[in-house]
Structure formats: C-alpha cells, structure tokens
Input
Amino acid sequence: MVGDVVVYTLARLLLVGVLTAAIFFGAHLIGNDEFPLVVALLFGIVLALPLGVWLLDP
Output
C-alpha cells in the first residue's frame, strides 16, 4: 500500500519534470530565450494536475 503511494508520487513528480522541460525548451526552440524556468515549472504543475489523474488512473 505504501509502496504504491510512493510509486504514484514519483510518477507524478516525473510528469511535472517532463512537462516543465518540454515547456522550457519548447520556448527556447521558438526563439524566446528569456523564458523563466519558474514560469515553466508553474505551468508544468498546473498541467500535471489533470494529466496525472487521467494518465495515471489506477
């Protein structure tokens, strides 16, 4: 039971990291070199909330 919660938490944190990297480097690819990492992280958290429920449905 506790192991499942730990795996689920790590999967959600990994999802936030992947989304943050995609947003941050996506902004750099389109030419916006001054896009703050904190903003990408906040967008990643907001997007990971519903995606985590949908993608990681048990």
User: Anything to note?
Assistant: The radius of gyration is 13 Å. The chain has one domain: 2-55. The mean pLDDT is 94.
